[in-house]
Amino acid sequence: MHLYGTQSVNERGHLTIGGTDTVDLAHTYGTPLNVYDIALFRERASAFKKTFESMGIRAQVAYASKAFSSIAIYEIAEQQGLSLDVVSGGELFTAVSANFPRNRIHFHGNNKSFTELQYAFDEKIGCIVIDNFSEIELVKEIAESRKESMNVLIRVTPGVEASTHDYITTGQEDSKFGFDLKNGQTDEAFLQLYNHPYINLLGMHCHIGSQIFETDAFRLAAEALMNKMVAWRDNYEFICTVLNLGGGFGIRYTEEDKPLEPSVYVEEMATVVLSMTRSHNYPLPEIWIEPGRSLVGDAGTTLYTAGSSKEVPGIRKYVAVDGGMSDNIRPALYGAKYTAVSANRMNEPHVDKVTIAGKCCESGDKLIEEAQLADPTEGDIIAVFCTGAYGYSMASNYNRLPKPAVVFSENGQHQLVVRRETYEDIVRLDIPLQLVRREERI
């Protein structure tokens, strides 16, 4: 079995994370419970930053917070000197609530509302990543009416096909995101922005997808954007000062996954940029990247309590847990794979092959179809690894299940950072019926 970060097994045969016993955490905070290994987050953040520093490149490493958003994780990101990628007014509000430095906030999204863009201007954030022509007009309108400047990047789709699931591929020509690099849209966006008195065009942005293991696509994307930057210099005497190459760096969910070290992705992309700036005599831009999953994915573990079980002779054994697709939609949404352990019986052989089923009223609510556990019985604590990205952030109240609590663990200490929802929270926005029945009006 593969353990991650600070995970280990203590003298009680229990899984520990950040020096704390997961069984104790489950008993203290209840289950389902999301536990984050904060030391691993810090380690990954440092690795990205140090790689740029070692290559002598000015850079910003922005945490792509859609992977997991909360005040506490934004505070950790700020402690590590990261920037922040937000994609909605809600994420921006969370960043403001965390008092995150506004000049290091980058606002993404393919359908930013007028209100959200006004909010970005109100907070004087560091950059808006322009996604479409409608947004250009909105940003211009706000900037001109206020006579306030705003830094922007143009998001482009470089036409690079990344080897990943269709649902998380974003860099190909047929994408809802960005301006197409090949059909002239990117040039048209540039012409609408680069000479505007209140728009400070920094450069370009691309994001080719998520959970990518190879570096070829990243290199091709960097080359495509650099070629366009050189063309803008030659044709318009415009120099891009920022090149944002996005994120999407893969992590290990199962033993079949073979991710590279964070430094490798950075080195491969940066080498292309360095080479092309030298060959074209182009000023080296500041490089921005946006890791999300690769910072929090394998730093997160979800703890469940085993409940009922069912054996279908000759087919499979089901073990149900007290969560499921309501706190981790990824297996049901696009067949994401995970591994699990019996957190309270780590020293016992994990040879029983079972399907871990959730408690939602859906046949497809299965977290892992062939998990190997230690003869699971009711009351066992089952830990599912690598749930730190797109678990809690995509959680729902389907079947009116409360969202789980979130705990950070580091150096033998643990802290609740998101409280568990209650049934009262579930109905908090409901409004009792006040309409008068028809027969009562006669």
TrEMBL record:
Pfam families listed in its UniProt record: Orn_Arg_deC_N
Keyword Metal-binding appears in the UniProt entry: no
Enzyme Commission numbers on file: 4.1.1.20
Domain of life: Bacteria
Similarity remark: Belongs to the Orn/Lys/Arg decarboxylase class-II family. LysA subfamily.
Membrane in keyword set: no
Binding-site residues for substrate, renumbered to this chain: 293, 330, 334, 362, 390
Pathway the protein acts in: Amino-acid biosynthesis; L-lysine biosynthesis via DAP pathway; L-lysine from DL-2,6-diaminopimelate: step 1/1
Function, in words: Specifically catalyzes the decarboxylation of meso-diaminopimelate (meso-DAP) to L-lysine.
PANTHER family: DIAMINOPIMELATE DECARBOXYLASE (PTHR43727), GROUP IV DECARBOXYLASE (PTHR43727:SF2)
Reaction(s) this enzyme catalyzes, per UniProt: meso-2,6-diaminopimelate + H(+) = L-lysine + CO2
Cofactor: pyridoxal 5'-phosphate
Chain residues that bind pyridoxal 5'-phosphate: 248, 290-293, 390
Organism lineage: Bacteria, Bacillati, Bacillota, Bacilli, Bacillales
Designated name of the protein: Diaminopimelate decarboxylase
Keywords: Amino-acid biosynthesis, Decarboxylase, Lyase, Lysine biosynthesis, Pyridoxal phosphate
Gene encoding the protein: lysA
GO MF assignments: diaminopimelate decarboxylase activity
Subunit: Homodimer.
Residue positions where N6-(pyridoxal phosphate)lysine is found in the record: 66
Organism annotation: Sporosarcina psychrophila
Ranges for domain Orn/DAP/Arg decarboxylase 2 N-terminal: 41-296
